[in-house]
Amino acid sequence: MFRQAYQVGFFSVLSAVGGHPFQNWQMEPLTGFWTKTLKDFTTNISCPADPSKTLGIKSPFLVFILKTTELFSFEVQILDDRNVRRWLKWSTIHKEKKVDHFRANLPFRGDGWRRLVFDLQNITNTSFGSSYIETLRIQICGRERVYFTDGEYSEDEIFNDF
Prior knowledge:
Radius of gyration: 15 Å
Number of domains: 1
Organism: Oryzias latipes (Japanese rice fish)
Number of helices: 1
Strand content: 35-45%
Pfam families: CFA20_dom
Mean pLDDT: 75
Structural class: mainly beta
Domain CFA20: 42-162
Order of helices and strands: EEEEEEEEEHEE
Strand order of the largest sheet: 2-3-10-5-6-8-7
Protein name: CFA20 domain-containing protein
Shape: globular
Number of strands: 11
Largest sheet: 7 strands, mixed
């Protein structure tokens, strides 16, 4: 989906900015809606909307600016250097890390608004002993902005739109 796109610096995949924030996302239930506060937002979304397509994002740092709740989770499907599709799942339900051949379930703690940076290369290496190649799919609930970067940036280095 984005494999041919220029992917240096910041690459946004979900944002409240603009007229069509869910253009590339599938929503469940289809009656979901978007609000700035996300107070009662319980819709699960995944990207890309077409399950036969992949994101093709090669930037190894995934950044969430989100509001977490008591029951929060998100999943990222990646492709590694062994050409294996694997899932990384973070959830408030998981209390400890559990890894099998295709999935890593990782604990997530916290409540409220926060900015989280995930080094997918490092997580892939420590979980599976392989190298991150690209992100294929994302499934999330409880969010405002999701973007990828080519490196880790401080708050001062982030554009105001991000």
